[in-house]
Design brief:
Belongs to the heat shock protein 90 family. By secondary structure, the protein is α+β, with helices and mostly antiparallel strands. Helices cover 32% and strands 23% of the residues.
């Protein structure tokens, strides 16, 4: 932060006091005697170093807000520019040139038609469209934080759109499953987990050297990191989603946050919910039902979307379940119920 500010950053408070700092750990508060009174609210002035000029660019500001504050409760606007088509009076020289060109290329009959309509054309001033740059306030955080809502009030389409926005996967396929839950008590957090429809091609490449997780960590709706691998074991790294905690501290470094005692509790609950979510894919798949009576009931309902879903999951992520059996002794029994094997029959002559 110190490398960005050249002189001072200051807050001009409504009751006319100024807070100033050079981002060096010290600050000063003084009475505001040189600015006009705001009446209410707070004005923030930042003085940036020359090498930090990119933080004044419109695209850079949009990128930062979208990444770190996309789900903040209060709206964030940017005074942004855009090009629009505007009609302006055409120049007389251009108009006459166009008339001459049209006259030379027209036939005699066309000229007669033009003469007949000339009276109407004279009444309408000739215009042309030009590009003009305008400025207006643009809302940057218009995506709703669906994890703050009651799961019963969120539709399947809303979950699908949220998954596409989160994963930047705008294909036609829906996620195989999702889990929307919250935890209360000593550790409070809300989370949404998704099982993607397909495994990325590099899922198992550099499996033990890749620390990146697809689970984004938020603290009070503020984005912290998407490389926080302490929330999921490696064999579940194919899951996508986010965790938003009200318990974790916001103004600490990533290294200090990694050692926070609440992370172990959060991780334990997320793993359990993730395995329950995967088990639910199998439970709702008619092809997975071996109970004839239950299967007849399922077939009486239009359940085509869920048919064969677990086979699809196993073909894409079965290797992850097998790795979990090896790596996660605590949840080995839960993972064992997710294993599937090919059935072979032998015939004797």
């Amino acid at each position: 932060m110190e490398s960005l500010f050249s002189d001072t950053c200051s807050f001009s408070l409504g009751f006319r006091y100024v807070w100033e700092s050079k981002a060096d750990g010290a600050f000063a508060v003084s009475e505001d005697v040189w600015n006009e009174s705001l009446g209410r609210g707070t004005e923030i002035r930042l003085h940036l170093r020359d090498e930090a000029g990119e933080y004044l660019e419109e695209n850079k500001l949009k990128e930062l807000v979208k990444k770190y504050s996309e789900f903040i409760n209060f709206p964030i606007y940017l005074w942004a520019s855009k090009e629009v088509d505007v009609e302006v009076p055409a120049d007389e020289d251009e108009s006459s040139d166009e008339d001459e060109t049209s006259e030379s290329s027209s036939s005699k009959e066309e000229r007669e038609d033009e003469d007949a309509e000339k009276g109407e054309d004279e009444e309408k001033p000739k215009t042309k469209k030009v590009k003009e740059t305008t400025y207006e306030w643009e809302l940057l955080n218009d995506v709703k934080a669906i994890w703050l809502r009651n799961p019963k009030e969120v539709t399947d389409d809303e979950y699908t759109k949220f998954y596409q926005s989160l994963s930047k996967d705008f294909g036609d396929e829906k996620p195989l499953s999702w889990s929307h839950f919250s935890a209360e008590g000593d550790v409070e957090f809300k989370a949404v987990l998704f099982v993607p429809p397909k495994a990325p091609q590099d899922l198992y490449e550099s499996y033990y050297n890749n620390n990146k997780s697809n689970l984004k960590l938020y603290v009070r709706r503020v984005f912290i990191s998407d490389e926080f691998d302490e929330l999921l074991p490696k064999y579940l790294n194919f899951l996508k989603g986010l965790v938003d905690s009200d318990t974790l501290p916001l103004n600490v470094s990533r290294e200090m946050l990694q050692q926070h005692s609440s992370l172990k509790t959060i991780k334990k609950k997320i793993i359990r919910k993730a395995l329950d979510m995967i088990r639910k894919i199998a439970d709702e798949d008619p092809d997975e039902s071996y109970d004839k009576e239950k299967k007849d009931v399922d077939e009486s309902v239009d359940n085509n979307e869920k048919k064969g879903q677990y086979t699809k999951f196993w073909n894409e992520f079965g290797k992850s379940v097998k790795l979990g059996i090896i790596e996660d002794a605590t949840n080995r029994n839960r993972l064992a119920k997710l294993l599937r094997f090919e059935r072979y029959s032998t015939c004797s002559a």
